Amino acid sequence: MRQGDTTAAGLVSGEAVHLEVRLARAGSRVLALMLDAFVQVFLLIVLASLLTLALVLLGFSDAAPAIAYVLTSALVLVAYPAVLMVLTRGRSVGKLAMGLRVVRDDGGPVTLRHAFTRALVGTVLEWPGVLLPVSWAASLGVLIGSGRAKRLADLAAGTIVIHDRTPQSWGWVPSTPQFLQEWAATLDLTDLDDELALAARHFLARSRGLREPYRTRLGQALATEILAVTTPPPPPNTPGWVYLAAIVGERHRRSALRLARNRASHAALWPQLFPALPSQPAPVQYAPAQPVPAAAAAEALRTAAPTA
User: Which of 36, 50, 93, 239 is 20 to 30 A distant from 116 in Cα terms?
Assistant: First the structure.
């Protein structure tokens, strides 16, 4: 887990492989619970009415409402969420809408035992709970104060709630100009942090809307900052904008390769969490290095910069 990142959890699978997942915090979980509560209340009303009618027809007129309430409460509040969670591999209606999933503490899928324990404890101590507002406040306090975003039912069942891993779009990312690809492959980008790289990417995406001389000044400032933390320097006669495009493009290429390798190794252990794996990009074959003519650099500058 990255230092200072409170939304990620490093899980260790049974094969001793580290899986990076995003923990679901109070905001998304409360919204999911509200959706689930709405569904459960609707089912409770419908099933209780139907069961009461059936019991009356069978001759249990006096005890029909009480019997129907007990049976439907157990069915809707405990059995329904437990069975649904097992069938959907850790999802409920609300969690499906919010893109969440319940997993074991080691990252594996929940079993019926985990789902039943979670539903039973949640019904008694959280929703609807025996003390209503008191139990709700206690559960929310535990959820907010827990380092792994666990509520009371999670502590009892040994589970956590995570965000489903879905590919994130990078938006527009410049590609490394062809005549700089061999040089870019030798770059040491260790000291180039996310903030500086993102600033360069945003500058390239919005440079057409900037006025001179501010566009040139900002581009030169970014290029100077990046030159100070990367090696080797670019070939002679490389324009500043082309240099920035090469840096951002190469960084994105390496990140995409690393993500593809990580997802492939994790999917081998847990296919349900990574249902659609992107194919790993083939290694880039670079042509022999060529001198960088000024005309080629200018042409690369026009193609690297986004259109208005």
Answer: 50
